[in-house]
């Protein structure tokens, strides 16, 4: 059977298992012994099919690799070229993990994790799923208005306990977080990770063509390759919510999801821009290989144009610049000699300007952000409890949401950062 046929068979079994649980719930009873045996058998087959799908996809990827000679190489995005993460959009790139043979999609912000095959299990419509409705339903102890979310979960959802979000719901949440990040809007690309560690290869040094005279030898050169390692680290948020609010407020579901997405997006941006290493990813502010202009002091547009030139000298067209709110204000207050506010030069005005509190104070980070990669695990964990801490006493629910991610630069000199900006 093909991977597509196997996925369809698995989706049918998931639907069958869900129907057994729904029937028992409707009749307000537990599964009978015969139903439990049937359910466990279906669930075991679902897991076996998942493993078989993975094996066949790996083999298909290896076959393609052998036929085309492709490998997971992260190269530069040249000026005017789009590789799925620049301003122009474009087709999704696919690499191959040389260790496993698994195909690895590389997603720009316009491509969705919800459209990946592993997130399209069953007949779930990603646009109809909401993490906010799921959380509100758990808090209420009622699935009224959240039937799609209940069907999308692979097993029973306890009213007070931890669950892993089933792929369709997790993918919807991750896409919303990606779309809300300034790094994503700047052009950063996402590498979905199915394991905790992933190693890719980047080109660190170009081959330089040289002239030669008649009967002279060419100077031998080598491509400079180096590793790009992604190791998933955990980031999350813990919030409390009144159970009365979750039960009574008509907009509780949308507010819960909006706030979760906003908090997680700011956390992703902070780690990508200012992570300090160790338990955190290495953010751009401490990355050793990007271009730097320190101790800027009073900023003017000539300095910004100089940084644009630094990036363009690497044969890359900058896509955006990211600033702290204070630096945005400093730029807005630049005045001409006669006291009028200066307009930004055309080259700077053509870039997407993205202010964020996640940026390190006094910095302006500019470049071709399509060279920045975010490795993102496809499983997001959601834990909801009415008993942890003092939640039971206060009639609250505690919600913990965690993501696992890391960042890497395929071509570090495509990014330049000005720091020490004071006004």
Describe the structure.
It is a single chain. The protein has 423 residues and is α/β, with parallel strands linked by helices. The chain has 2 domains: 1-69; 70-207 and 222-423, Alpha-Beta Complex (phage-related protein like fold), CATH 3.90.1690. It is built from 12 helices and 16 strands. The protein has helices at 3-26, 33-68, 131-140, 147-152, 167-180, 182-186, 243-248, 252-274, 301-312, 325-332, 346-349, 391-394, and strands spanning 73-74, 93-96, 103-106, 161-164, 189-193, 197-205, 224-231, 233-242, 291-293, 320-323, 352-355, 364-367, 372-377, 381-385, 396-409, 415-418. The strands form 4 sheets. Strands 4, 5, 8, 13, 14 and 15 form a 6-stranded mixed β-sheet that branches. Strand 2 and strand 3 form a beta hairpin. Helix 1 packs antiparallel against helix 2 (33-68), helix 3 (131-140) packs across helix 8 and helix 5 packs across helix 8 (252-274).
List SSEs in N-to-C order.
HHEEEHHEHHEEEEHHEHEHHEEEEHEE
User: How would you sum up the major sheet?
Assistant: 6 strands, mixed
Number of strands: 16
What is the mean pLDDT? 79
């Amino acid at each position: 059977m093909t991977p597509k046929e196997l996925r369809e068979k698995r989706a049918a079994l998931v639907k069958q298992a869900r129907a057994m649980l729904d029937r028992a719930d409707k009749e307000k009873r537990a599964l009978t012994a015969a139903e439990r045996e049937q359910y466990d058998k279906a669930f075991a087959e679902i897991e076996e099919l998942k493993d078989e799908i993975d094996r066949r996809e790996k083999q298909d990827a290896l076959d393609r690799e052998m036929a085309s000679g492709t490998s997971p190489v992260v190269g530069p995005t040249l000026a005017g070229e789009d590789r799925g993460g620049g301003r122009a959009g474009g087709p999704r790139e696919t690499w191959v993990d040389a260790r496993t043979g698994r195909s690895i999609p590389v997603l720009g912000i316009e491509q969705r994790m919800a459209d990946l095959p592993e997130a399209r299990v069953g007949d779930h419509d990603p646009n109809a799923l909401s993490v906010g409705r799921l959380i509100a339903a758990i808090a209420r102890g009622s699935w009224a208005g959240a039937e799609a979310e209940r069907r999308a979960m692979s097993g029973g959802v306890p009213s007070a306990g931890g669950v892993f979000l089933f792929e369709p719901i997790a993918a919807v949440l991750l896409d919303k977080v990606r779309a809300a990040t300034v790094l994503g809007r700047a052009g950063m690309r996402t590498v979905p990770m199915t394991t905790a560690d992933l190693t890719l290869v980047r080109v660190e040094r170009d081959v330089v063509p040289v002239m030669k005279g008649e009967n002279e030898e060419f100077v031998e050169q080598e491509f400079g390759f180096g590793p790009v390692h992604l190791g998933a680290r955990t980031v999350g948020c813990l919030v409390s919510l009144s159970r009365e609010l979750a039960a009574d407020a008509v907009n509780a579901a949308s507010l819960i999801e909006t706030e979760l997405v906003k908090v997680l997006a700011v956390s992703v941006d902070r780690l990508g821009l200012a992570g300090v290493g160790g338990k955190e990813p290495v953010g751009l502010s401490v990355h050793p290989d990007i271009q730097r202009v320190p101790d800027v002091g009073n900023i003017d547009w000539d300095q910004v144009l100089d940084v644009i030139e630094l990036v363009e000298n690497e044969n890359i067209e900058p896509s955006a610049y990211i600033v702290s709110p204070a630096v945005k204000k400093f730029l807005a207050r630049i005045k001409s000699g006669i006291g009028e506010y200066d307009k930004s030069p055309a080259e700077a005005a053509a870039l997407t300007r993205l202010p964020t509190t996640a940026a390190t104070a006094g910095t302006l980070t500019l470049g071709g952000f399509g060279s920045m990669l975010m490795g993102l695990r496809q499983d997001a964990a959601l834990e909801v409890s009415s008993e942890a801490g003092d939640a039971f006493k206060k009639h609250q629910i505690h919600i913990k949401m965690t993501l696992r991610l890391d960042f890497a630069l395929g071509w570090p000199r495509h990014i330049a950062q000005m720091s020490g900006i004071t006004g």
